[in-house]
Write a structure and sequence with these properties.
InterPro entries: ArsR-like_HTH, GAF-like_dom_sf, HTH_MetabolicPath_Reg, Tscrpt_reg_IclR_C, Tscrpt_reg_IclR_N, WH-like_DNA-bd_sf, WH_DNA-bd_sf. The chain has 7 helices and 8 strands. It is an alpha+beta fold.
């Protein structure tokens, strides 16, 4: 801690991170041990976070992340979209296909940013807000591949006709971005994805990840 930082705020944020990392919640004693502070401090932190709906406690007294974080989360998408747009524009123009950034939203893959190429005669119409199951389409499958290889490089994923007849997709997951689970990809009207597209998508995903760090 430095003179310019707030110890109380730091502890509050650490509480939220600890709760976000567990599916079963944490007791006051468990939080006290993890934070290295006494139970009284934890009670005060939880009470403050509860007032803002960022934390809730169940009947057993275990603290969990509250629904208030959803309101904060809704503001993340515009910031992520803005950071990703330069890489998506470059990708769309280079490949001549619709480029997109897709994030996990519950059990779905949600397109939060889409850029269409300016020079092609035709391309796939793919809109921000489009959602689909994670196990269908290149965008979702790329995310799942990163989950299966958390410490390796999952590369890119190719699909054909899974979301739209006659359309092929390529996507690569975002890697090394804390709190963001997603992928960058392209969708095109083709029977197969050209060989150079996969590595190019991986490069674009890396550019977006760097912009978000």
């Amino acid at each position: 801690m430095t003179a310019e930082t707030s110890q109380t705020l730091d502890r509050g944020l650490r509480v939220l991170k600890l709760l976000a990392d567990t599916d079963h919640g944490l007791t006051v004693t468990e939080l006290s041990n993890k934070l290295g502070v006494n139970r009284t401090v934890v009670y005060r932190l939880l009470a403050t976070l509860e007032q803002h709906a960022l934390v809730r406690r169940d009947l057993g007294g275990r603290a969990r992340v509250g629904l208030g974080v959803l309101g904060l989360g809704r503001q993340v998408h515009p910031l992520v979209r803005e950071a990703a747009l330069p890489a998506l524009r470059s990708l769309a123009e280079d490949i001549g296909a619709t480029a997109h950034l897709t994030l996990v939203d519950g059990s779905d893959a949600l397109a939060v940013a889409v850029v269409e190429p300016t020079w092609t005669d035709y391309h796939v119409a793919y809109r921000a807000g489009f959602r689909h199951a994670l196990d269908r389409g290149a965008a979702g499958k790329a995310i799942l591949s990163a989950r299966q290889k958390p410490f390796g490089d999952p590369g890119y994923t190719l699909t054909h006709g899974e979301l739209e007849a006659g359309a092929s997709g390529a996507a690569a997951p975002l890697l090394g971005v804390t709190g963001v689970e997603g992928s960058v990809g392209v969708v095109m009207l083709a029977d197969a994805v050209p060989e150079r597209v996969g590595p190019r998508v991986v490069d674009a995903a890396r550019e977006v990840a760097e912009a978000l760090r």
